[in-house]
Design brief:
Elements lengths: L7 H10 L3 H9 L6 H11 L6 H13 L1 E4 L7 H12 L13 E5 L3 H8 L5 E5 L10 H13 L4 E5 L2 H5 L3 H14 L8 E5 L8 H13 L4 E3 L11 H18 L4 E3 L7 H15 L11 E3 L2 H14 L12
Parallel strand pairs: 1-2, 1-8, 2-3, 3-4, 4-5, 5-6, 6-7
Helix pairs in contact: 1-2, 3-11, 4-12, 4-13, 5-6, 7-9, 10-11, 11-12
Length: 325
């Protein structure tokens, strides 16, 4: 599909895009359109690639290391978060070679519990914020939500964009809200990384996914993320393909690398490997690292662990091999 390429006019458009609502609208609507059939066919083709045993073992470990182990339910408790954090640090207690997950993702009021449990393990604490998942509160409330999570120790903030404003074409409003949220994440070594949730299931078209991706990157997001996991469809291969093309083109245009996080509905090791193949083929191997690609998941880790055990022993373990999340 068509790329956004570096030209003098592109550079000028990028610098002008944030100057006014009309300039930002002109830039976003000037992006190449997405061929829906082409995107879906390419995603399907990439999903058929076979992975041999040695490469599969590497891919399973890589996928484990990319998981944001997540619990975002109204009935979450400190005990549940401690258990989840323990699992994140040692996903398979019988195998010291099993990598830890990338992060534990919780609501802001449980950040302190996760941070205390994880300690110096290196596993990050991610917190959803900005009135997740709907985001239907005033900006002052959203920013207070972010500051509270950062003060409690969050290393990463997963914010939701105002989809109503985006779909109404109020792009500068969405841009300025992301900028303000990033400022609320702090500065320097104490700054939390910002993941911008697009909620692609509500964006209606792949063209909108591409525009929202560029909007999130232009505003300073460190990651762009598909979904809250509360809206269907959540992460899909074609949507993630469009987002991977966006981060690839953004780096080629600006020199800045941005991460991608599909979240919601990725439950099996087979699906995770399909995403890793797509990352390599579309964005490139530079993105095959937890710093640049994550899975937002609650049940995916269990299947990854079962598949690792199958490769190691030649058979599947019983149903009590992994904890149920």
């Amino acid at each position: 599909m068509a790329r956004v390429t570096i030209t003098p006019s592109t550079a000028t458009a990028l610098s002008d895009a944030v100057a006014s609502d009309s300039a930002l609208r002109g830039f976003l609507h000037g992006l190449p359109g997405v061929d829906q059939v082409g995107a879906e066919q390419r995603a399907a083709a990439l999903g058929t690639r076979s992975i041999k045993t040695t490469a599969k073992a590497w891919a399973l470990d890589l996928a484990v290391s990319m998981v944001d182990l997540t619990t975002l339910e109204g009935n979450d408790t400190p005990g549940k978060v401690r258990t989840l954090a323990a699992k994140a640090m040692r996903p398979d207690p019988t195998d010291p070679g099993c990598p830890a997950t990338a992060a534990v993702c919780v609501y802001g009021d449980l950040v302190g519990v996760a941070k205390e449990t994880l300690g110096t393990s290196g596993v990050k604490v991610a917190s959803v914020a900005t009135a997740f998942p709907a985001g239907r509160v005033p900006l002052e409330v959203k920013l207070a939500d972010v500051r509270d999570a950062v003060a409690a120790g969050a290393d990463e903030i997963d914010m939701v964009i105002d989809r109503g404003a985006f779909l109404a074409g109020r792009y500068l409003e969405v841009y300025e809200e992301i900028v303000a949220t990033k400022a609320a994440c702090g500065q320097g070594d104490r700054r939390a990384h910002l993941k911008v949730i697009l909620e692609t299931g509500e964006l209606q078209t792949y063209d909108n996914v591409r525009r929202a991706s560029w909007l999130g990157m232009l505003a300073g997001g460190d990651f762009i993320k598909t979904s809250t996991g509360k809206v269907q469809p959540a992460a899909t291969m074609p949507v993630t393909l469009v987002m991977l093309e966006a981060v690839r083109d953004f780096r080629e245009t600006t020199g800045t690398q941005i991460g991608v996080k599909p979240a919601g509905g990725i439950r099996t090791a087979k699906d995770a490997i399909k995403y890793l193949v797509m990352v390599n083929e579309v964005a490139g191997e530079d993105w095959l690292h937890p710093d640049w690609f994550r899975f937002g998941a609650s049940t995916l880790l269990n299947d990854l662990l079962m598949q690792r055990q199958k490769l190691a022993t030649g058979h599947y373990s019983g149903p009590d091999y992994v904890t149920l999340d």
